[in-house]
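TASK: fixed-backbone design
INPUT:
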């Protein structure tokens, strides 16, 4: 049959076929299939799959497409982005999908940012960082060299690290450059804390002193303890300084005058940590905004109200066990809502409003693990060999980093965490700077830092 005649015949047949009922169309197709040979059947088979396909993302309203996409895991979504430009456009436009994916990775989400491409990029960045953590490749190390004797005291704030040493000096370092900004002559330092103008030191000579960075001058001397001062904290607004000592006491001082306002007793061991913090929850004993003092020894944590009044009584004593062979690790976390401390029994978290134990976390091989930092999503821990990151949602260790043979200290001030905001959730910006610092037997300071994103 000539092409022209065939096309005319096909047009007539098509018109007649369209006028048939569905049943008649089916019978016609059955008859044509029965007349077909292998070549025709193969052609039919190859084209049926394409004819039956429907691009549901293209056909559905955008709201329904977004609803369906929310049921897919992020890795599948990334694969779906490769199906077509249309699929990539729809999937990339679903803000909630990428925000949820970031949340599931422990990322902080700012709901005010509604740009979906931004969240897709954040997710891809998050995937890279989490892979680095899993593969133990997220950090790098460096050292600070400058002291000539044991470094016993460390304190970190806003990119600056203060070190106090038995060489009768304290130094302030810029962690990002490794440069020493200030170096002043002091007494032996067992504890340090600083701000822009001053440095406060607790010493093995049983005193506390306040120094001026710019001149190195001693501006105040606090005398009264009969044992080494292992921990200090202060608040300029209250004009109060607190100190914990090997004489089993906590002293409250007027920061500006050096006058001892009160001596808090009740501890039966060295007081190795004092924390002065605003309360953020309400209970029968305190209200939001009240200042609270926590003091810890080897076995107990004591809670004291504090303010401009001189006298105060212990509100509560917390412990993990009545067995005196179970001791607390030297680090203590208090953010105004929760108290957290580690022991050989696990990581204990107390609700500050009720003083009830909320949970006890027991990761594998926890007996020698100490607490460094505790947030809403992650906790930072360490032992003699490794630095650990714990996902608090699953209570599983997600990363570790090897540590050198650092200087061991039962009191615990010779090591500390650096930047802490990432413990409440990474955001692609806060995974920079110092993670961990510890003093070494050669008097240097070993730093663990976030590695830049690949």
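OUTPUT:
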């Amino acid at each position: 049959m000539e092409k022209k005649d065939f096309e005319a015949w096909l047009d007539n047949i098509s018109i007649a076929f369209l006028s048939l009922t569905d049943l008649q169309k089916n019978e016609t197709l059955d008859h044509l299939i029965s007349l077909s040979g292998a070549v025709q059947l193969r052609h039919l088979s190859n084209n049926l799959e394409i004819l039956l396909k429907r691009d549901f993302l293209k056909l559905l309203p955008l709201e329904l497409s977004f609803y369906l996409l929310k049921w897919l895991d992020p890795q599948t979504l990334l694969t779906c982005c490769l199906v077509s430009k249309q699929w990539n456009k729809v999937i990339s436009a679903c803000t909630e999908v990428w925000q949820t994916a970031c949340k599931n990775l422990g990322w902080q989400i700012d709901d005010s940012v509604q740009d979906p491409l931004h969240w897709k990029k954040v997710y891809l960045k998050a995937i890279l960082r989490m892979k680095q953590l899993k593969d133990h490749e997220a950090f790098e190390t460096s050292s600070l060299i400058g002291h000539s004797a044991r470094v016993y005291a460390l304190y970190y704030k806003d990119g600056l690290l203060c070190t106090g040493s038995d060489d009768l000096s304290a130094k302030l370092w810029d962690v990002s450059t490794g440069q020493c900004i200030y170096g002043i002559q002091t007494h032996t330092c067992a504890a340090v804390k600083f701000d822009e103008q001053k440095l406060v030191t607790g010493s093995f000579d049983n005193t506390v002193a306040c120094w001026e960075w710019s001149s190195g001058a001693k501006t105040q001397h606090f005398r009264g303890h009969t044992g080494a001062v292992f921990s200090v904290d202060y608040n300029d607004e209250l004009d109060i300084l607190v100190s914990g000592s090997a004489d089993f006491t906590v002293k409250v001082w007027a920061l500006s005058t050096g006058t001892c306002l009160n001596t808090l007793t009740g501890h039966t061991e060295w007081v190795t940590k004092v924390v002065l913090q605003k309360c953020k929850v309400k209970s029968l004993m305190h209200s939001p905004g009240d200042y609270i003092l926590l003091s810890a020894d080897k076995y107990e944590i004591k809670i004291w109200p504090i303010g401009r009044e001189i006298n105060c009584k212990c509100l509560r004593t917390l412990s993990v066990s009545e067995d005196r062979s179970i001791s607390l690790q030297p680090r203590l976390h208090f953010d105004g809502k929760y108290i957290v401390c580690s022991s050989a029994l696990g990581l204990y978290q107390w609700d500050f409003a009720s003083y009830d134990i909320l949970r006890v976390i027991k990761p594998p091989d926890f007996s020698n693990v100490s607490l460094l930092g505790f947030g809403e999503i992650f906790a930072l821990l360490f032992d003699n060999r490794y630095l650990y990151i714990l996902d608090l949602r699953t209570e599983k260790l997600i990363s570790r980093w090897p540590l050198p043979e650092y200087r061991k200290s039962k009191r615990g001030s010779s090591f500390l965490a650096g930047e802490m905001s990432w413990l409440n959730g990474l955001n692609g910006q806060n995974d920079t700077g110092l993670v961990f610092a510890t003093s070494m037997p050669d008097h240097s300071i070993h730093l663990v830092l976030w590695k830049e994103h690949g």
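COMMENT: Residues 116-134 form the longest helix (19 residues).
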